[in-house]
Specification:
- By secondary structure, the protein is an alpha/beta fold.
- It is about 40% helix and about 15% strand.
- The chain contains 10 helices and 7 strands.
- The longest helix is centred in the middle third of the chain and has 19 residues.
Length: about 280
């Protein structure tokens, strides 16, 4: 996954995505378009970084997730009309490309933000908009409590084809209890996609939890759950794959000295060089 495109959108380019494909064996890029914190609601110009991501993915033959990155604003219903406008435009432009996936709500959160009252009604509206232009590409729907309560969504699923539900975790903060929620969702017949996870604590720091990460990855593999990892940046956080300040020009071609401990670990995972 990219980090917030308003901060690290320079990495959303063909060189970086191509390097991740060729050297890391990555098959997918997630384009994380924040709404707030300098994101889309502050400047629609950030949309150009999403378009760059999609165009690069199409050219390179990899999957791309277009991520409406609800986070600080919690309730997806608050910006329903802006979301409709965005996904209508993007699905008209790219809905015919089978490698484009729509993540319509990153991490809904807040005590009063519920599946039945906020998230599902929002998703049903956006699904309707996308399906008017794109009948069959995968739509990924966020779930309660920062996309951890997949069990709640699984009990009252959205009608329609090719709809999946979002699972997020950070290995240093989330473990067996979260996997139990996933098992419940799978038992209820929900299709899950882990669009964001990290090797660290949920803060993005706290070090790399290798043992806990391996437990999660083995679990995801056993249950056929695809994933994207957080994140491509050089800001110096533990969950960033680049060492602090490296590849300022965002050209790819990284060597070990350019990578953080997280990046070295993730590269081994993707290249299948890690003992399970």
């Amino acid at each position: 996954s990219s980090h917030g495109l308003q901060w690290y959108g320079k990495y959303a380019n063909e060189n970086v995505i191509g390097w991740l494909r060729d050297d890391w064996n990555s098959q997918i890029w997630r384009s994380a378009m924040y709404l707030t914190e300098g994101g889309y609601l502050n400047s629609k110009a950030i949309k150009t970084k999403v378009i760059d991501s999609v165009e690069a993915a199409i050219k390179l033959g990899v999957y791309v997730i277009v991520d409406w990155h609800v986070l600080g604003n919690g309730d997806p219903m608050v910006h329903l009309e802006q979301s409709k406008e965005f996904f209508d435009e993007m699905s008209k432009k790219y809905g015919s490309y089978p490698n484009v996936l729509w993540e319509i709500c990153n991490e809904p959160n807040g005590d009063k933000v519920t599946w039945e009252g906020n998230i599902k009604p929002y998703a049903e509206e956006i699904v309707k908009v996308i399906r008017a232009n794109d009948p069959d590409n995968i739509i990924i729907v966020g779930t309660p409590r920062w996309s951890q309560r997949v069990d709640l969504a699984s009990k009252n699923q959205i009608k329609g084809d090719n709809i999946m539900y979002t699972l997020h975790f950070y290995a240093g903060s989330h473990g067996k209890a979260n996997r139990k929620l996933v098992k419940t969702a799978l038992k209820n017949g929900a299709a899950l996609f882990c669009t964001e996870w990290g090797t660290t604590k949920e803060s993005g720091d706290g070090g790399v939890f290798e043992k806990e990460t391996k437990e999660w990855l083995n679990f995801l593999e056993r249950n056929n759950i695809s994933w994207t990892n957080w994140a491509v940046n050089n800001k110096g956080e533990d969950s960033g794959i680049l060492a602090f300040g490296k590849d300022k020009d965002a050209k790819g071609g990284w060597t070990d000295k350019d990578l953080s401990p997280d990046g070295k670990f993730l590269r081994k995972i993707l290249r299948n060089e890690l003992d399970k």
